[in-house]
Amino acid sequence: MKPMNVGLLGIGTVGGGTWTVLTRNQEEITRRAGRPICITAVADRDLERARQLTGGQATVTDDAFALVKDPAIDIVVELIGGYTTAKDLVMMAIENGKHVVTANKALLAVHGNEIFAAAQRKGVMVAFEAAVAGGIPIIKALREGLSANRIQWLAGIINGTTNFILSEMRDKGLAFADVLKEAQRLGYAEADPTFDIEGIDAAHKATLMASIAFGIPVQFDKAYIEGITQLQAMDIRYAEQLGYRIKLLGIAKRKINGVELRVHPTLIPAKRLIANVEGAMNAVLVWGDAVGATLYYGKGAGAEPTASAVIADLVDVTRLHTADPQNRVPHLAFQADQLTDLPVLPIEEVETAYYLRMRAADKPGVLADITRILADSAISIDALLQREPEEGEEQTDIVLLTHVAREKAVNAAMAAIEALDTVHGKVTRIRLEELNG
Ligand code: NDP
Ligand code: HSE
After folding, report:
1. 222 in catalytic set
2. Pocket of ligand 1 contains residue 46 by CB under 6 Å
3. pLDDT (tens digit, 9 = 90+) per residue, 146-195?
4. Pairing state between β 292-299 and 405-406
């Protein structure tokens, strides 16, 4: 049977992995897809490396725009990254009637609505399994496997670089900068690692999952984002003493009046499976009303794990490309004209539990003042830890865990606590999720 001709844009980490896996498993992939899937053309800035990798089995060019216009290409795989050239290339591929497979979460989180609308008009598919949680088939699970459910919430460790950094810092006591360098060497980190450590990459992925889970347009600009750069080693230790681990989570929750969409360091009970996801591994916990909790775990980054998802999309597109576009799985799981305008709630409206750490004078009445402020704001305390002061030390650390409260009320209480003469400096706040239903 005539092969599906694939044009590969970018043969770097993921593009190289895609070439290798597709070549290695060609026979089995063909048996699954029903016809051979062949990368016949590659575009990359580094022609020499592209030629070396492909060994004369594909045409190689540095003109990506010529490739997306080539009438012989059926599917364009975009693996160059970024929002600008990648967007022009994807839009041009769609205009030229080509299906697109991409791992580019940044592109889709920011320009997804425009890209999906263009693809809808042209009757082509834009597949993006590799864009969220690398090799874990979470898009397929949310979009197809869980389609009977009203999804209530999801929470995921969806950035391998930051999970790797947090794990290495906790287990080996290594410095942040050294671990980040290692993540870059291993090919986990984004071209700009700020995207990883400031939570932006996780927010791109959480944005895409929220859209698919709740049937809302892609709204990256409304996501609340806090990375791991301000996290202190002492908070990781106090959290452990209280029975929690700190993970960078991407969270999407359905509420009556909107959707919570947020990325931030989060305390989670150490006994939860997801709390034990270490290194560059990813995991996503999804709660649906019929199925309850489901957990998806695997490698979230790296050449071959990500290639696994890219190639799964290639197989899907190959199987479905002759289907009537109306009968294909919609890009965002819900039919394009059935998306809802449920708003993304501002962070002040978010309701969750909190870890609050403050440095306070070790003398009578201080704790009473602090707890009175919380009580006046209707914030209930769940646990309290006070560090035994060192000999001669006049201040100590007080750590409080609250029950679920509204962020606006917690902001006000923190300001009142910081205004006390007996409390020194700022209150450290880390959000806490029980993840139990
Ligand atoms: P790399 O930087 O390793 O590869 C990108 C390749 O594309 C490089 O060879 C680059 O060349 C080339 N390139 C860039 N711009 C152009 C252009 N205009 N024309 C032709 N070639 C170009 O990136 P990754 O493989 O790591 O990432 C690719 C995409 O996959 C990104 O969107 C990323 O977010 C996503 N992703 C990455 C994962 C990973 O584990 N690495 C996991 C999941 C998703 P040059 O080096 O000369 O710039
Ligand atoms: N930089 C990303 C990560 C790559 O560390 O998870 C996978 O999307």
Report:
1. no
2. yes
3. 999 999 999 999 999 999 999 988 888 787 888 889 888 888 888 889 99
4. unpaired
CB distance 11 to 53 below 8 Å:
yes
Distance CA(413)–CA(168), nearest Å, equals 34
Extract the tokens encoding 344: 């993304």
Residue bearing the CA closest to ligand 1, atom 34: 104
The C-alpha atoms of residue 30 and residue 116 are separated, in whole angstroms, by 28
Ligand 2: distance of its center to the CA of 241 in Å?
A: 30
What is the CA 297 to chain-centroid distance, rounded?
13
SS3 169: helix
301 lines ligand 1 (CB under 6 A): yes
Q: Which atom of ligand 2 is nearest to the CA of 196?
A: 1
What is the largest distance, in Å, between two alpha-carbon atoms of the chain? 83
Of these residues, 87, 205, 253, 299, which one is catalytic?
205
**Identity of the amino acid at 292:** G
User: CA-CA distance, 353 to 129, in Å (whole number)?
Assistant: 32
pLDDT, tens only, 366-400: 999 999 999 999 999 999 999 887 888 889 999 99
Domains of the chain and CATH, by start:
4-135+303-338 (3.40.50.720), 138-299 (3.30.360.10), 350-432 (3.30.70.260)
Distance (angstroms) between ligand 2 centre and the Cα of 301 equals 5
User: How far apart, in Å, are the Cα atoms of 75 and each of 3, 17, 277, 308?
Assistant: 11, 17, 35, 17
Which residue CA neighbors atom 26 of ligand 1 most closely?
13
Radius of gyration of the chain (CA): 24
Rounded to 10°, the helix 13-24/47-54 angle is 20
* Contact 45 CB / ligand 1 (< 6 Å): yes
